[in-house]
Amino acid sequence: MQSFEELISIVKKLRGENGCAWDKVQTFDSLIPCFLEEAYEVVDGISKRDYQNIKEELGDVLLHIVFFSELANDENKFNIDEVIKNINQKLIRRHPHVFGESEIKDVDGILKQWDKIKKEEKAEKENKNYKSVLDDIPNSLPVMERAYKLMKRAAGVGFEYKNADDSLKKVEEEFLEVKEAYNENKNNENNKEHLEEEIGDLIMTILDFARMNKINPVSSLIKANNKFIRRFNYVEEKASEENKNLTDMTLEEMDFLWNECKKSEAKSKRL
User: Fold this and answer.
1) How much is the pTM?
2) Which residue in 60, 197, 201, 262 has a CA-CA distance of 20 to 30 Å to 172?
3) Which fold has domain 143-215?
């Protein structure tokens, strides 16, 4: 762990008397945007299976963990050693099927056991007998991830459809309600609240349908984003080859190139 000790030493020096002016003025709040950006860059690297980039971005995330710990240490709150000890203890405590006497072996059982232990820990900290299973889902999570976690947590206590077919029926039902709200909105464009509400319900049901099919919707959307970029870039490149600007092209012309790319991708998958 010599490299890790060196990283701690570097961060201390950067924040020291003769360190970097930028590093010395950083706070927990000022580093939040940087930390989130680095975390998403890790996700981007994973989605592209760019392992060299993943290695680099994980280093940036680790830097922030050490940096946050040094900020806390300066205020006599905690240090990096306490952070590591805390996660070590938590992993052992929440894996009684590995480090204890629990005989649970299946994945679903392990996840329910994890949530049960986590809930007990939270209740003990707050010294109260009742705690909602939803209470400890952070408000700061990206909104789609938070919605997914809310439904997953509720499902953990049995609040879910019997099967994915029932969930899909709910998606279809919510889509019809969106259409109804949309038609209402066309007659009164100043009142979008109903349409906004129904779109939110539709998105929630789609996220839940993904959950019931054991598909992470965040991963699905990352792939959809990458697909959109790839196909749109194809449209741009083909337009450039024909000396055309996209703004001068009709939607039909751009859609033709889009579908051309789509067909080419489908053909490549079959090969």
Assistant:
1) 0.66
2) 262
3) Helix Hairpins (1.10.287)
